[in-house]
Amino acid sequence: MDRDPGDDRELPDGNPSPGGDGNLGPGRHSTRRGRSLMSWMQRSARRYNPFGGTSGRGSSHSSQHSHQSDIIHIQRPLHRADEIAPTSRDEPMFEVTDDHDDAFTDEGMSATDPMEQTGSEDRITRVCTGDDWVPRHHSRPNELSQDTQPIPGPSTSSHSVEHLRQSQQLIDKQARASSGSLNPVGGAARSQSTEPTEDPHTMTSLGKPLHRLTEKQKKKLFFIEALRTRYKVDYDKVQPIPYIKDKLYCVDKVYVEGGFEFMPTEQVTRGSGSWERLESYKSLFSDRRIQSVRRIFEGEPGYGKTTVTLQLAYDWCNRVEGSPMRDVEVLIILRMRQLSGIRSIYRAIEVYLLGSDPRVEEADIAAIIRESRSAVVILDGYDEYPDQHSRRETDVQRILKLDLFASTPVILTTRYLPDYLAPITRRVRLTGFDEIARDEYIRKAVVGEDKIALSIIKARLKENPVLEDLCQVPLVFVMFAHIAHENQDFQNFKSVTEFFRYMIRCFHEHLKNKSKELNTVRYSIDENEHAALDKLAFLAISQENQQITWSRDGMCKQLGQDFYETYLALGIFVEEEVVSYNSSREVEVRFYHKLFCEWYAAHHIVYILSQPGQSVSLDKLFRHMKPEDVQYVYRFACGLNRDVGSSIIQYLRGSRGTFQFRILCLLEKSGDAEGTLVSVRSLCSGTVTIKGGDNRLLQRSTVQLLDIAATRGIIVSSLHLDQCFAKFDDKDACIVLKSGLRLTKLKTVKVLRVTGRIRETDCHSKGIEVTREELLGICQTCKTLKEIRFEGREYLLPLSVPVEMIPPALKTRNIMVSYEDRRGTIHQLNWDDGQWQTTTSEPVLRISQEVLDQQWALEELARLTTDGIPVSCIHLDQCFSKFDVTNACIVLTSGLRVTSLKTVKALCVDGFMGEGIIPSRIEVTSEELLGLLQTCETLEEIRFEGREFLLPHSVPAEMIPPTLKTRNIMVSYEDRRGTIHQLNWDDGQWQTTTNEPSLRIPQEELDQQWALEELARLTTDGILVSSLHLEQCFSKFDVTNACIVLKSGLRLTILKTVKVLRVTGRIRETVGDCKGIEVTRLELLGLFQKCETLKEIRFEGREFLLPHSVPAEMIPPTLKTRNIMVSYERDREHGVIHQLNWDDGQWQTTTSEPALRIPQEVMDQQWALEELARLSTDGIPVSCLHLDQCFSKFDATNACIVLTSALRVTNLKTVKVLHVGGFTGTGTIPSDIEVTREELLGLLQTCETLEEIRFEGLEYFLPLSIQAERMPPTLKTRNIKVSYERYREHGVVHQLNWDDGQWQHQITVDGSVRVDIFQGKLDQQWGKKELAVLSTAGVSINRLYLHRSFSNITDNTQSIILTSGCTIPVLHTVRELRISYTDVDLEVFLRILAYTKECTKITWIIFEYCNVPDEVDAKLIPHLLKQRGLKVYWFPKTGEEYILDLGAGNWKKWRRQYGRD
């Protein structure tokens, strides 16, 4: 047999191809190879057994039979072999685990192969990729090609080449020993040899021969191989230099890590926060501090977000050692800008990553991701996602909300944060290139090991300080480095505009030089003629939602073909082939970087503003161009034209916080460098401030000015970092701000002032620890520094600096280092011994809850005690736990102990003073109190403030040492009501210092005990209590024992000295269902008689039900004489206050137009009806009467409203607004309540002062219309507003038109709605009406829910028939159709699908608790529905969930978390 010409080629190491052996033709192999492969497959499978078990070694029976079917053939691919990524030798490329698969053991391999026939359809062609065998796509995947032959794999590394050589030699050796079996591609078979030959590197990672894989496993192989092939195309064509298109790199050859930072917080912080440095991108998954299933990669344009994703793709495809991608089984990377109109993430994967391959469908993709042992999803460029503000929910939005891929790690790259983020999201930020990264890139991609060339490029950057910030952008620095290296005439630039102009000129010069070569295309476009491009760029960047991607045809039409091709050749334009939703391929065009778009947009701005005789509003021009988003548009425009620059700078003067940015714009003005330096000197002569609240642009502008000042040798007299200091980076010798910006050039700063948070509300924020190394590093970095001050409780400085750590130079310079805490105590570092000295004579110390703060304060207190310096006051801020009498020390909540108390003059123990739940009670015994006083020898005063402290009721006089009586220390306790109790040393009792204190008795029992003891003391001493407030603790008044009983069971017996009694209960709307507390007439009168000094009593809250009246004969004459003010306010929102009239025992209302609410509780209804009757009798108008889910009907005969309790509302003459509230969407829907025409008209006529009536609730059904002739003329004249809102989710309010008796409709929502239709006839009639209104208005209907109301579909499939006979026509705004509690046979099921075909927007059909056909003939399902991506779900009563396979017509089990809820 003749040899195939392809067999003559050599491997990269020079060895001939194994296929070129002269003795055997291609495909002549023995079964020995099958046996050796099989044997190692079995052993390897035991290592990767998905069931976690191990099994013994198999028998040798596999060597006794011919395994012709085990032969794995290699077909020459249709493209370069090196497009397949190599994998590591020692680990499998991927692993398949399948619950339905046999365990990969020797016992699982049958002695006689069931696939021995050569024509088996399960045989699949394989391609070798390093150490694994992976499938190669063919036009006929189930058949073997007749010209198959071995070929070498990728030649990307010596490792993979050597591995490939060994694998091929093994195959060839086995082939030469083959005999006795048929060759699948023809030729005689050789005799069988029993010599075992094994090589583990020829083993597929699945642990089985291909034909033994299940269909699911094969699909997984195809899927992963398709991903690898797709990613390799992307990461192998990195183009660092735009205009050099013939020089493409693999990403790994040019990738240099920039800076990474993360925000260490438990919740997503959108404002300012502390950022910490991340060592490498390889720590993204391993660092515990950012472990989460949701991560955000933030970065400005050009900072390398996409490059990082390409590097991760490279690591995954090549299983790079140490990479976080090495052990990931499935990696999904999607470009967000391509997902316009695609709501399903699985559809996006199918379209953009798999192309037109039909073997893996959406359902397969979902199953593969769901069942993989590890998967990662990367969504690149959320800021470019076209549907991010879409009203229609997409899978991307569901992923962000954790409704999809809840347990799958997802990375989102973006310029800015999405509107919604799950709380567990972790933020990582790319900070660009620092000096180390820039040097690494120059060595790696530009000059190699040429140190001279490296120093030249670095010197050129140093000579251009205005480019320092710009070159933090990796993409821009790459261009700078290559241009600086290739152009000997590289000049110094005074502005960024000059550099960009020079760079564009270099692009054009390079293209011209290239055009001079033979057989090359010549371009003749003038580099200065680009007006059309200027306008196009301006229109793109000045929109509210910037869109800087165009179709190729559209751009060619606007710019002209020659112009387009020129700028494409320059590299300013970049083409990208994308796959549209319908799988067609299109070419999109974008700028190489957004800076180019800003450059040309600035030209158009200059053109507009420089037109003579035209007045242009700059506010309108820059309306959507914020300086922080497009700062270089402003700067470029200022640099291109001085007059325009002056106008822009003047315009910026009207914006707050733009002073530094205006100086940068001034720097760009042509020929004005010296004037700019004068401005910089003027700025630096005063205090330069960087505030934490400033936006990033303002901070960056200030940093750039500091860089310019350092380069020009301008002294900065004072630099104030106001709440923005994060840390000092020893490695880079720079200060890191909380925003992530870095101050690298501080050589000319004289005074550095660092202030932190000092407000009381910030005391619990996490402190910023400044280590010894950081403090010394700051002092050494700032060469001209004379003073550094830290101010604020936020900073925790080292307790001391060891002398041996202090460099002699710092001792000589004697920099003043001071720390001022919030109490005004100044601590100054002594360079001789490294200790802090206190500059105040009697300092004040505060010990907070933070452990670091406590340690600092205790060290400071120890120093003061050792030096004998008196401490005027120690303030323990919510950290006191107890006093340890045995060890004579205070124990803090952290466990630390305060022992140095000998020099303390005053001790203030502060506790919880706010509302809400009180912390654990802290009881201070008499022994502890006396021990504390004796320990503090210089103590003059001690104060306890807070609700958690329980001091002894008294101190027995015999326990008080005579020395304490002599010292007469002031011991006081101030409760939260401001009442101060002071200890009397003569008798050990507490005295109240206020004349008429007020007391509050809350719900907590311990607090109640303390208050009762206090009240008893006040009563005993005859001290009047100005007010006693019972806060949600009143239960009843015990008439027999003449005392108030609290809810805790405690009794309040001593009330003789109380002047005002205030009883408050629950007043919130949500507690209307709570059981009321009825206060009877006897209780009320008994309470008055018990409190002899009582002048006023107030009841507040719906919880209390007071008597409707007090009969005059029951009122004692003494009470009438005292005239106690008794008031009752049930609901503060209504503003109705009732006051008891002692003359007749009736309640009087003090408001002019009160509002009343009648709830569902009968007792509450009785009270409200009595109240309404009094108001009606007195002729007081009621502004609103709210019937809260209690309306039953209107009795036209008796002209009254009947409530659900059967009580009747008769006094309606003074009501202005009647609000009938009903079911609002939670719980069981009440029975239908029909309001007839007669009832509605009768109700309106009865309420003579009625101006408006509102019905709200699903249970109410008003008449569909009222005949005009039946409406009384008086009602038409009054023009009462009658409105009806069935369900707020429907978004429709109906209002009665008195002219024709019809309802007018108003849409109340901006977005989408849902419509529910139930089984009642009236409900279905109103539902149909609302659907028509919404459909006519074009409102998107998220869900049409037919709850027990679906009957059938009309024969023409144009309408839904409801159970009442109503029909719903085809609706083009419905997205989901949900049918529940209905039996659907096959005929009706197909009609529903046909109806859905007509409704163009329906993408989901859900059958809930229905009986549906077990299967459907797939041929009967409209093909259009399959193309649309329709999802049909079935949720039976059993609790299982199914999805219909439209291709096969059968139901498959489905997990809700991986699909749409």
Task: Describe the structure in brief.
The protein is α/β, with parallel strands linked by helices.
Protein described:
There is one protein chain. With 1461 residues, this protein is an alpha/beta fold. The protein has 36 helices and 70 strands. It has a 7-stranded mixed sheet, with helices on both faces. Strands 13-14-18-20-22-23-24 form a 7-stranded mixed sheet. Strand 67, helix 36 and strand 68 form a beta-alpha-beta unit. Helix 1 packs across helix 2. The N terminus and C terminus are likely disordered.
Please name the defining characteristics of this protein.
7-stranded mixed beta sheet, disordered N terminus, disordered C terminus, single chain, 36 helices, 20% strand, alpha/beta, 1461 residues, globular
